[in-house]
Amino acid sequence: MSYRTAIRSLFAATALASMSTASFAATEIEWWHAMGGELGQKVEEIAANFNKSQSDYVVKAVYKGDYTQTMTAAIAAFRAKQQPHIVQVFEVGTATMMAAKGAVYPVYQLMQDAGEPFDQSGFLQPVIGYYTDADGHMLSMPFNSSTPVLYYNQDLFEKAGIAEAPKTWPEMGEAAKKLQAAGVTCGFTTGWQSWIQLENFSAWHNVPFATKANGFGGLDTELVFNSPLHVKHIGQFGDWQKTKAFDYGGRRSDSAPKFYSGECAMYMNSSAGRAGVIANMKDVKVGVAQLPYWPDVAGAPQNSIIGGATLWVLQGHESEEYKGVAKFFTYLSSAEVQADWHQFTGYLPITTAAYELTKSQGYYDKNPGADVGIKQMTGKAPTENSKGLRLGNFTQIRDIINEELELVWSGEKTAEQALNTAVERGNKLLRDFEKANN
Amino acid sequence: MVENRPWLTFFSHFILLAGVVIVLFPVWVAFVASTHDPRDMLSGVVPLWPGDRFIQNYYEIFVEGMAKAGAPPIGLLMMNSLIMALAIAIGKIAISIISAFAIVYFRFPLRVLFFWLIFITLMLPVEVRILPTFEVTAGLGLLNSYTGLTLPLIASATATFLFRQFYMTIPEELSEAARIDGAGPMKFFRDILLPLSRTNIAGLFVILFIYGWNQYLWPLLVTTDEGYYTIVISIQRMVSVPDSEPLWHVIMATVILAMIPPVLVVVFMQRLFIKGLVETEK
Amino acid sequence: MQTKRITFKAKGLPYLLVAPQLAVTLVFFIWPASQALYQSVLQQDAFGLRTEFVGLANFENLFADPLYLASFKVTMVFSFGTTFLSMGVALMLAVMADRVIKGATGYKTFLIWPYAVAPAVAGVLWWFMFNPTIGVAAYAIRQMGYDWNHTIDGNDALILIIIAAAWKQISYNFLFFLAGLQSIPRSLIEAAAIDGASPFKRFWTIVFPLLSPTSFFLLVVNMVYAFFDTFSVVHATTAGGPGQSTSILVYKVWRDAFESLDLGGSAAQSVILMLIVIALTVIQFRYIERKVEY
Phi/psi at A293 (nearest 5 deg)? Predict the structure, then answer.
């Protein structure tokens, strides 16, 4: 490319850039998000449709990397007074955001200040419960939420002569044995072990993960996931790992290929992963079921809890701009937008209206298994053990849990030793957080 | 070579070929992945031979794939990456070639302090200082600008250090002769040092160009305007899809495309490299 | 520190020459970096809303943590492994490439390719190849009778990140070794050949000593690379696990700053990391550079 052409295209590029950002009289609202791939495109579409629906505000969706990068970018921007209006934060960042009182603008207050009609009771309680304060006010706007479910390979089940998905953990063990006898390498695997096998496990069995109502009751909460029930569960997994009835496949969703390739016949992961499972297993029949439970625990199964991310509003902008944010949130939580988002992505709908709308559109009849997650979450009214978790330094606590569980899978520690160490190390972090935020 | 030893030449070729195979293998995997259906990658063992979707997959990125990820047109992304890489490479070489000259060929107060001030930039990971650096850049009003994208990344000592090492190997006689001839320092720099440094400049250019081209975290932080996005950001954007599987075939095709400009730079600069070497031999 | 025996004399000129670099370094490095280091004696929430001076408490916490101490060992194994693997392979390839005439350009072109792969992408490629279920490399190793599983076996995981980190650096080292080799006057080697020295002997007595400035430069750069620039490899492949078997210091620094937003603790760790690298560099300057022949 000649020098002159280079300069010319440079001008063209900058001209294009300034054109795309030129806002007319409309007030611009920045929304930083972490949705890559097709999800990102959907996010842009939501913003574009909102912009088309009225002429006072323009929502600009900006991709800022994965969850941690987006959150760090927003915090850096806040410190440099360049913060966006809205930022998408994953669920483990909740306690950090909540503690930053001068930095976040609680959603219920924003709606009130902007005079925007806002009815919190229309939202699915298990979804927003994770993000409310002690008085039950909504602090952030749920955006993409999901809950773990059990996927199973029906073709392999048929081969092993199993009629239906196991409901309890002892049945899981039996099924795995039959599957292995029929030539399958491993019975089942799991993604996000801390989220599914400890956090959701506790809620599902209605036992506390931490004291003080899992941290909702105060910063002086302590971890208690080393109870006999937890030890039994993790210990059982450790035994199963030895025979490959269970096979560990990594901390995040790295175990997915084990299920896709038919190496493992069952797989526990986010309900929002359903589309990916189906796309990768086009020639295989896949079923979706609720998480297994221990039948000897009274009250089990209770309800599962969510993961995913919510939209937080940051302080430091003009009230006129916040009016736009409020308008956008109203648009975002409308039944049509939510139902579309839910059906396209597999994330849970956040309002009852959107759930009902999806039902009446016949979506669940056409897509069997798509509602397993919602049913599992809304089956019973949440207790203080199954409302969610509110723990500071939770990212690190999850890392600790990952590290300790891996030592169980490799046989270096017993379940009891590992969980005790994890609780001990985790409690130290909780104390640090308490000190830093008092 | 000096003498003819067929077995040694054969051995050399063998080692080099083995080296190329090992070193290129991951790149090959990327290419193979870019020619398959995404499903082939996650069920069973990753294939080793190109599939039949080469045209389809690459067509997809040019026509729909990039838009699918919500990214701006690929031409603009490549242009931004190019501007950023060139600015960083040229900027770094320009400032470090003269500062190394000063540090090696002059004795002046504070010289050692300056050297260590520059050298110490090697010793603090970028991630630790990235937040305060962002604040400084934002304070100077450089967000969403090419200056903001490049200038903060020019502050690094690798190039200065390399030039210093290189100058130390230049025979003393040269500068002595220059002094006896009454040539000033800048004349010496221009007429002797600069031509001698040609190989090093070429080598550094390759490395710095690639360094600039591959930047990810920094451009992500300082840009909110799609007009300044780079190709690497768009790759990461396609990889980071929470709760579902990334479209590996499109990602890998973009990876291959993103690799072409740096590779062209390598091939092109190699000629300069060799030319520089041949001339110093004379 | 050395200069030339014979130096130029000019009052303002040297200052003028270092000024641009110094300015950029002060504004975009020294100033922000010192702020980051000051963090190490503070306890601060992520948004910077509450700040408390805590003295050396962050450091005390670190050294009271046996796992932090354990990661020193992992880091040492990792850094030396990476440096020697990548420099060794690169040197061997450079020597061979310097020997052959036919196809030399072709080899060079191919050997530099890995360098063009963005680190953010390289991690994904290694994940692809070594994934215990679908990875070709893992498959090949299993065919050889070894049960590769880096998600459970700590040694497998450590080997994986050493190979991945070294791979990225081979091209860089190769380029510099080759430039170094080609700048050695042919006449020297020819003279030795006429004296009857074997290629092997020539390499150790003539070529290798003459390469020492290059090797010294690369040693510093590679150590710095292994200590600091390898977090993305770890992040994309093992995330520090299983257990803490691949939790190298820089990964912990990165994770605590970026994921956990514990700026004080992370800054304290980077101070320690920085001290280690400064110490290593000073040792290299003092003892190795003195011996290096120019």
Answer: -145, 165
